[in-house]
Structures are given as structure tokens and as C-alpha cells.
Design a protein that fits this description.
The chain is about 40% helix and about 20% strand. The protein has about 300 residues and is α/β, with parallel strands linked by helices. The chain folds into 2 domains: about 220 residues, NAD(P)-binding Rossmann-like Domain (Rossmann fold, 3-Layer(aba) Sandwich); about 70 residues, UDP-galactose 4-epimerase, domain 1. Helix 5 runs parallel beside helix 7 and helix 5 packs across helix 9. It starts with a strand and ends with a helix. The protein binds nicotinamide-adenine-dinucleotide. Pathway: Nucleotide-sugar biosynthesis; UDP-alpha-D-xylose biosynthesis; UDP-alpha-D-xylose from UDP-alpha-D-glucuronate: step 1/1. It comes from candidate division WOR-3 bacterium RBG_13_43_14.
Amino acid sequence: MKIVITGGAGFIGSHLVDHYLESDYEIVVIDNLLTGSEKNLEHNLSNKNFEFIIADVCNVTQISSAFDILMHFACPASPFDFLEYPLETMKVMSVGTYNMLEIARNHQAKFILASTSEVYGDPLIHPQTEDYTGNVNMLSPRAVYDESKRFAETLVMTFNRKYKLKTGIVRIFNTYGERMRGHDGRVVPTLISEAIKAQPLPIFGDGTQTRSFCYISDMIEGIDRAMRIDYSLPINLGNPEEHTVLELAQLIKKLCKSNSPMKFMPLPDSDPKQRKPDISKAKELLDWSPQVQLEQGLIQIIKWFREKKE
Ligand code: NAD
């Protein structure tokens, strides 16, 4: 089986690449290295089953060799990144998604979209089920990401209905693990890199906002299972165990044996107050639920951060 993974030089994409190469699949990565890094793939560069194309998916309109599945993961994903690259974010989810869907259609390949919990915006129902249509302020700066992902989902569903293309949509909730960048604006790597350096831990608001954190190995397993079933509507993937940001900071401080103080800062615009997936559908359709406890996963990523000395 041959799989094309866009965004394969990024955090989640590069773990997908490892996962499928370990199973002897052929992998083609298309990535323009906007927020990813070749370093995430360097251990695979000499693998005969691996090909790396450095390109912007917005400019790619064909792939010559046959393949079976296209997993579209290219997109700036951290708040720092999508606010720094607002137009690139909107373009990759609109033009880029359209191009990748057309290519999948030409090859009669299955298409999987990496969507996000951000499609729910600042949710008014809790936990979020897939049929909740969200509460997004389309005029806020964050909307470049949220609305683009919503549009991408609509494009995917339209190709599914109009052309009977086999498609799947995974709505990914906060995921953490090795290969995240220390200062990409996501809460887990930010807190760890500051705690390791004994610097103040930035907490937005009073830290009572909740998040759920899924370890990367659980997420890869969930995405893989979703790729294998014939189901086109979105599936939530994430860890339903909820923690306040303050609890997370305290746990990271303990595990890093750090004496960093907390530094409270104003809440950013449209920062969601709660986020927790309802994963009943993933349980039922994929027989999937996260296995890695928060403390266990944090120990792994802290070890990785210390070894790479970021
Ligand atoms: P990441 O920034 O580490 O990876 C994204 C990759 O896409 C990078 O390698 C980047 O260079 C590449 N890219 C961006 N624009 C591109 C373009 N126009 N052409 C080609 N490549 C391009 O982010 P990630 O955390 O690995 O996220 C991967 C996907 O999962 C994204 O689509 C993101 O929206 C989604 N997602 C991630 C999370 C999470 O917690 N990490 C949560 C929800 C959704």
C-alpha cells in the first residue's frame, strides 16, 4: 500500500510516517517546511520506501505515481503559527485541500482530512459531540484556522457526495508528544521548556480553563483505525480526561522538579474556556480510546525535551 502524507515533516505527520514505514508501507511526504522540519524525517531519508517532496500543496496539482491513500495533514496548527501565517493557513485549507482532493479523485485514492476540535470554537455544549456545529467567531484572529478547517470539512464532504470519493475526517483534539517545538504556543511544550529552564510558567487567565491532552501514540493509533474504515462523517479523536491549565502546569513543574513560579497573563481573544471530546463514536466505530495516562506521556516528552536541550 502506498500513502501520500501532506505535512509529513510536522509533529503528527512525521509520527504517521514512522508508523507506516514500520509496517512496510510506501510513503510519499509533501511538505513545504513552513512549520515542520526535515529533522523530523532524517532517520527515514535513506529508507527505500520513503520519498520526500518539498513543495507547497497549494502549487501541487498532480502526482505521477499511483497511490492508495492521501492523508492531508499540511497546515500550520499552533496558535503562534497560524497567527503568524494567517493567509497561508487559509490557503492551505482551501486551495491546498481542493488540490489534494482532486489528486485523490484522479487516483481513486481514499482521502483523510486532519480536522480539529477548533471547528467547535468556544463550545456551548460540553463535552463536544460530532453533531455539534460549533460557536466560532469568524471575525476573530483565530478564525483563520477555525473557519479554514470548517471550510475544508465542507470541501471534503462535497467531494464525497458529488464524486463518491472515499473520504474520512478526523477531528483532532490537543495532542502532545516528542517533536513538538518548545515555543510554538501550545501549552504542553511551552510549559515544559520554561519549567526545564526554571523560567516562569505562563498561564493565560486564571488557569481554570480546561483542556484534554492526548499522547501522540494514542492519536496515531486512532488516525490509523479511522483511515481503515468506510465512514465519511467526522470522528472526534482525543483524550476525554479533562484538566485545568493550572493543574497541568503544576504536574509539569513536579515532573521537571522545577521551582518555576506561575506567571498569570491576560486571556487571548476567543480562547476557548473548555475543550473535551465526546469519543463515543470513536469507541464504537474504531474500538479506540486513549491508553496513555497524562503523567506517563508527560514523562516521555520531558525526557525528549531534556535530551534535545531546547
Ligand atoms: P505542524 O505544524 O507540526 O505540522 C504541519 C506541517 O504542515 C508542517 O510540516 C508544515 O511545514 C506543513 N505545511 C504547512 N503548510 C503547508 C503547505 N502549504 N504545503 C505543504 N506543507 C505545509 O502541526 P501538527 O501539530 O503536526 O498538525 C498536523 C495536522 O493536524 C494539522 O492539519 C493540524 O491542523 C491538525 N491538528 C493538530 C492538532 C495537535 O494537537 N497537534 C490538533 C488538531 C488538529
